[in-house]
Amino acid sequence: MTRFDPETLTYNDQGLLPVIAQDHASGEVLMLAWMNADAVAQTLETRKVTYWSRSRQAFWIKGESSGHTQTLIDLRVDCDRDCLLAVVEQVGPACHTNRRSCFYTSVEDGTERELMKPES
What we know:
With 120 residues, the protein is mainly β. It is built from one helix and eight strands.
């Protein structure tokens, strides 16, 4: 086994890499967000998934204000070390639109179709 160091990942010019969140029980892809090395380290330390908000230029602990938390079950590194898969326990909707997943729109034959309504 090799000791993991977030600095060994490949970040973009802004010091970020994409992170896909996947529900541990259903396998459903929930969302995509960004992390920097400090967010990766914080997520591993606290098990509370912590992203980097590009718009606010600040850490964003998922569910901190909404209560729709993500608890880290497993963190996986892709083959190029430039993307992460966060396998999570999701409480409530993952999407800011109050849907379970951010991927709620399907494109078929040039037409968009909504796959799920917001949770009430």
